[in-house]
């Protein structure tokens, strides 16, 4: 059985001058999931090296680049312990609650559109400076 551990952090949802609070839900990766993600990117890089081997002229640059990129990208990906899952909150424009799925590669600040009123929303990290702006 797959256990999905979600961790939530408060964020700021801004729309023009209005803002509201929301929650960013992050998926905590288990060590096994981190190893699988690292192995996948390593495999893709080495597959790209194999595919680029017959490319005349460019293979001198591409093959060593992809071979070196494999372990480097795998190491960088293995270090990631949490990935974004979804964000939930209230739209500052139409006051409707919404939930938006996020990609694992998404990072804050991020621009999204409200599913109800199509307003442009900015998802921002909630820091001490953003809290003081509310006062
Ligand atoms: Zn809205």
Question: How would you characterize the overall build of this protein?
Answer:
This protein is of the alpha+beta class and 135 residues long. The chain folds into two domains: 75 residues, no CATH class; 49 residues. Helix content is 37%, strand content 34%. The chain has three helices and six strands. α1 packs antiparallel against α2. Bound molecules: zinc ion. The site of zinc ion (ZN) has 8 residues, from loops. Zinc ion binds next to loops.
Brief summary of the model shown:
This protein is an alpha+beta fold. The chain is 37% helix and 34% strand. Residues 130-135 have low confidence and may be disordered.
Are any ligands bound, and if so which? zinc ion
Query: Rough shape?
Result: elongated
Number of helices: 3
The SSE string, one letter per element, is EEHHEEEEH
Binned strand content: 25-35%
> What structural class is derived from the secondary structure elements?
alpha+beta
Question: How is the biggest beta sheet arranged?
Answer: 6 strands, antiparallel
Task: Report Rg.
Answer: 20 Å
- Spans of at least 5 consecutive residues with low confidence: 130-135
Nearest-integer average pLDDT: 89
Number of domains: 2
Cα end-to-end separation: 46 Å
Strands of the largest sheet, in order across it? Answer: 4-3-2-1-6-5
Number of strands: 6
- Percent range for helical residues? 25-40%
């Amino acid at each position: 059985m797959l256990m999905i551990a979600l961790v939530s952090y408060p964020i700021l949802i801004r729309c023009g001058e209005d803002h509201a609070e929301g929650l960013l839900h992050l998926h905590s990766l288990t060590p096994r999931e981190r190893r699988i993600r690292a192995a996948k990117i390593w495999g893709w890089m080495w597959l790209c090296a194999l595919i680029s081997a017959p490319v005349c002229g460019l293979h001198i640059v591409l093959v060593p680049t992809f071979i070196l990129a494999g372990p480097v990208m795998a190491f960088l990906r293995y270090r990631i312990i949490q990935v974004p899952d979804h964000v939930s909150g209230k739209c500052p424009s139409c006051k409707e609650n919404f939930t938006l799925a996020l990609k694992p590669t998404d990072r804050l600040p991020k621009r999204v559109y409200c599913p109800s009123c199509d307003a442009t929303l900015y998802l921002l990290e909630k820091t001490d400076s953003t809290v003081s702006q509310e006062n």
